[in-house]
Amino acid sequence: MMTTPAEPYALPAEASVEVSAEEHQFNELIAADSRIEPRDWMPEAYRKTLVRQISQHANSEIIGMQPEANWITRAPSLKRKAILMAKVQDEAGHGLYLYSAAQTLGTSRDEMTDALIAGKARYSSIFNYPSPTWADMGAIGWLVDGAAICNQVPLCRASYGPYGRAMVRICKEESFHQRQGFEILLELMNGTPAQREMAQDAVNRWYWPALQMFGPPDNDSPNSAQSMAWNIKRFSNDELRQRFVGMCVPQAEVLGVTLPDPDLRYNEETKQYDMGEIDWTEFHEVLAGRGPANARRLQRRREAHEEGAWVREAAVAYARKQAVAATAVA
Ligand SMILES: [Fe+2]
Ligand SMILES: [Fe+2]
Q: What are the recorded GO MF terms, alphabetically (predicted)?
């Protein structure tokens, strides 16, 4: 009598954790530090992480235009106006590259825009602070774009191809942004006592929020390890923050401004700067929508979206007309 063959579907226990061929290929690409492209299979969690990160990044570029656009009409000279306009336009371009990168992951631009104007999507907490003086243009360029550079240079090597490639172009423009901010402050610091005071006041207001741009401390950043394992993130939040402070200290000396941290000092043993306590309560408050300018920023974004409706309609009508013309020729 024949024995019943083993149930064909009952795989041995180890086999059930075996990865699929696609997943194996994904893991191989990551291990080889190669790029994942839109056509490649990827784990859902990887896709979700990227959509969240890239869309938040895009939103930050777009909302980040506001504190500086606030000063375009009041720039102190034609030269400053031209530079500031170019800078704000660059930020619009950064938003567009990044929304396009996020779209390759299957989320539409409309979905991302709707989430932003509905107040459901995040953007960097830094852009919820006001820019009351001209010196803020200097402090934003020097500190905010400076922090952005520290964050973004390693992202040029992010494992997801469209994101990494967008970052390469963005970083080239960010270094110009940082320099123009530095130069605004330098000019003010070489000016009258009132100008020097205005520059110092702006640095006092932007320094701590710039340190918060790197995100919570490593021991309070639960998703970082996974992002590092996927080669999206290359350095931890605290490492990047440390690198930024190391960059700011000598530049502050050249400018003649004081960084508003009485505990900041070089530690000979660690070869790094020890710094004072960051106010994380403030960070979480701003992130939760309760910062000084959150409501104003979102309101302005909503208005701009509504005011731009006719441009979108015209573009759709034009595309339709072109399509009809193309079929007529064919
Ligand atoms: Fe930017
Ligand atoms: Fe920038």
A: phenylacetyl-CoA 1,2-epoxidase activity
In this predicted model, what pLDDT tens digit does every residue of 155-194 receive, in sequence order?
999 999 999 999 999 999 999 999 999 999 999 999 999 9
The residue type found at 248 is: C
CA 187 to chain centre: 28
Answer whether residue 1 is part of any domain. Answer: no
- Ligand 2 centroid – CA 150 distance (Å): 12
Report how far ligand 2's centroid is from the alpha carbon of 7 (Å).
Answer: 62
Distance between Cα 145 and ligand 1 center (Å): 7
Taking the centre of ligand 2 as the mean of its atom positions, its distance from the CA of residue 173, in whole angstroms, is 7
Could you tell me the distance, in angstroms and rounded to a whole number, from the CA of residue 61 to the centre of ligand 1?
A: 5
Q: Which two tokens stand for residue 227?
A: 């992002």
Q: Are the beta carbons of 241 and 215 closer than 8 angstroms?
A: no
Distances (CA, A) of 94 to 81, 91, 113, 169: 20, 5, 15, 9
Reference 272, options 250, 243, 251, 252; nearest CA is 243
Instruction: Tell me how far apart the alpha carbons of residues 255 and 239 are, in angstroms, rounded to a whole number.
Output: 25
pLDDT of res. 18: 78
Q: How many angstroms does the Cα of residue 300 sit away from the middle of ligand 1?
A: 19
Among candidates 300, 3, 262, 267, which has minimal Cα distance to 123? 300
Range of the domain at 218: 24-329
Mean pLDDT of 39-46: 96
Residue 282 lies in a domain: yes
- With a cut of 90, say whether residue 15 has pLDDT above it: no
Residues paired with 265 in a beta bridge: 274
The reply to whether 11 falls in a domain is: no
CATH of the domain at 65: 1.20.1260.10
Q: What is the pLDDT of residue 223?
A: 85
Q: Could you give the number of structural domains in the chain?
A: 1
Q: Is residue 93 part of a domain?
A: yes
Rounded Cα distance between 199 and 25, Å, is 53
Residue written as token pair 């530690």:
267
